[in-house]
Amino acid sequence: MEVNIEPSWKQHLHQEFEQPYFKSLAQFVRQEYQNHTCYPKGKDIFAAFDHCPFQETKVVIIGQDPYHGPDQANGLCFSVKDGIPHPPSLVNIFKEIKTDMQRPYPESGNLERWADQGVLLLNATLTVRAHQAGSHQNKGWEQFTDAVIKTISVQLEGVVFLLWGGFAKKKAALIDKTKHHILTSGHPSPLSANRGLWFGNNHFSKTNALLGQMGRTAINW
Hints:
Elements: H1 7-17, H2 20-35, E1 38-39, H3 47-50, E2 59-63, H4 88-101, H5 112-115, E3 119-123, E4 128-129, H6 141-155, E5 160-164, H7 165-169, E6 181-185, H8 190-193, H9 203-213
Parallel strand pairs: 2-3, 2-5, 5-6
Antiparallel strand pairs: 1-4
């Protein structure tokens, strides 16, 4: 797996790519893509970084695993390619934006439009085998993406982290709370949302309010 990642991220993460764990991860991913159908496409594995250069990162949303169905995953957490039906969690995200921001429900579930505004849509695991959720967990991706979060925490200031659900909330331990903002809520999955843990969190308006206080441009959700 050639680490073809946006140059500013390569500059900040180059030491990770030299680590033994990453070299064995790269070998594992290469073999998986050769022998099985995996998602996202190889060129999209680092898409979250490619759309959101390091210094432009204003918001970080943390997901767990790429979608494992055909043509869904595009390398950004919670996002699907244009024309693909919206998965349940994404439906609930858009419903919350609709009430929070008084925005119409969008046609496309492709969140590249957020990433291009400085929203890093980071899955903890960046690849998955088709139809096998979690199949690439505990192979080294989590160590890499934890390093990404730590690097943002140390090198940048005033980033808004949106931690949805128990898995994402654990990442708060990696973030310097004196320099950054952390908003937490339940996960947008139907299981959590239907128990009242997601809707009404107003994370999108709260994020824009925080960005405004720091003199930064709001995100057009």
